[in-house]
């Protein structure tokens, strides 16, 4: 059974490290490392007395961890099942050192100190739009900001989940400057299988899920249906109001249908057509109720409702022994609504609605001849999205529209210079056309219009050189470029128009992979240095307004390291650590001071174990540590979060036709603060209270 794999040890460091300190870290990481991925046959590996070999699929090529230089952690079905209480992607992100997920609110996780939400969140995003730095995709479809920030993403019926730290722009394209999360759901099978799952827990938590897969035409056509609904009540008491009902109600529904076609008359051809429906609702934040001064967190909390329908069509055709053609086509429609309560005070009205659609097509050709020194791929991608938005406050309605068209070409080639030395060259050329229009009305002032229309092009290269003295020993170095596009908006309070340019990063990494002690110990590591150019960040515009600007200088550096150890055939241990240093320099009109990036703890880590015993029982636990960090860009000491620990555990019984589990999250009921917002020192986000629950899964 897959163990709780080491949540990757992130040992990020900053340029402010003294040279001897950085050298010591690098030397230590070259010996030890961060283990980031899983395999599908962990039981067999444990019985064999060895650690299973990790397989990575999220970079458009299937390869082992020893052929992968990216800092990535992979969860397969076994690892998800043995992670205490894991039912949505946030449960996995929170286990990864060097990733700070501060809880339910506007902000997506910070990865290596970089806010993956992008520069605009909350009210700022109302007029600037959103452009995340994290590309979270499910079966090839990249989710939007609102789907990531406010809608739980189900782990039910997932084949594999991969979490990448560091720029992935060259391979994932848009919105991948901080990293990527690649989720792959299970395909239909040519044999019958079905599952049902039920779970309950404190805070009215419940999960109801089911799956069925079966052949239609033997060995040629099969289908798969899955559905998952999860509900819970926020630990913060909130009021009920129309039209949302109870503001503290959090719900997620995901339904997916897939059809697999593998015609016997066309050898090597495979087609999968999938349809997905997602519907989520949640309060905008879970900060405590607060009434002092301006009411940021009333009992009648704003509620986000997000819905989407998408179709994904994947085609793969092995033309011959060397060439394979693949195509991924996605069409989706989405709708997001923010509801606020303004019955008692019309000035508090701040509703928002978005209706949009997306289309993308990505054909590619692979070259992979057995025993060839050269293998690689080349492809193109076309993406188009349009959305109509409306911000509604006490003054009136403010309509907006946003259109983006992106065309890109990408390629990757790996050549074996020697039997032990591989060189990989990759590149992406991307051209984006974006327009954003907004209309804002202010009493006793002329109507303010935002008319942004911009076309930009960027070249994103990457080179990777690896040395493999043995099949399970790798040392490598890589250099690559990442980016996020620019945009425009109106300041939230005074509606001042502004524009901001693209942001870029050069990423340098040294990585190691080691398999030792008769394949019972695995050590992995990534040491990184990121040099940003034009990092987009919120800056003050007067005493009570903000805009987005590009800063000239920003840097992060550090490392991630981890270890997996199969102590016995029944006991797997893991440990990981993250070290990070970050800094950026404000623009001159902001004072030009050098500060730390928010949510960038200098130290983070994780330890855990999976123990199987008594013919079917398994006990798993993990403890995760985050060092202190600043909540805001100003580095106000009053908004600094103290270090904290979180411990989770699970006891399960696995039998031939299912599993029964009892789990506890935040076992010691820590109420540590995780994030301060808007100088509201008496209403910080905190860890969710201890939750005890149980689940039953039956397979037929």
Task: Describe, in short, the structure shown.
One of its GO terms (cellular component) is cell outer membrane. This protein has 700 residues and is mainly beta. The two termini are 20 Å apart.
What do you see in this structure?
Strand 5 (110-111) and strand 6 (114-115) form a beta hairpin. The model is unreliable at 1-44 (pLDDT under 50). Helix content is 7%, strand content 56%. It is mainly β and 700 residues long. The longest helix has 13 residues, at 19-31. The chain is globular. The protein has a single domain (19-699), classed as Maltoporin, Chain A. The protein has a 22-stranded antiparallel beta barrel. Strands 3-9-10-7-8 form a five-stranded mixed sheet.
Strand content: over 45%
CATH level 1 name: Mainly Beta
Number of strands: 43
Largest sheet: 22 strands, antiparallel, barrel
Count of folded domains: 1
- Do you know the CATH architecture? Beta Barrel
As residue ranges, the low-confidence spans are: 1-44
The CATH topology assignment is Maltoporin, Chain A
Helix content: under 10%
In quaternary terms, these chains amount to single chain
The coarse silhouette is: globular
- CATH superfamily (homologous) name: TonB-dependent receptor, beta-barrel domain
Number of helices: 7
Average predicted local confidence, pLDDT? 89
From the alpha carbons, calculate the radius of gyration and give it in angstroms.
Answer: 24 Å
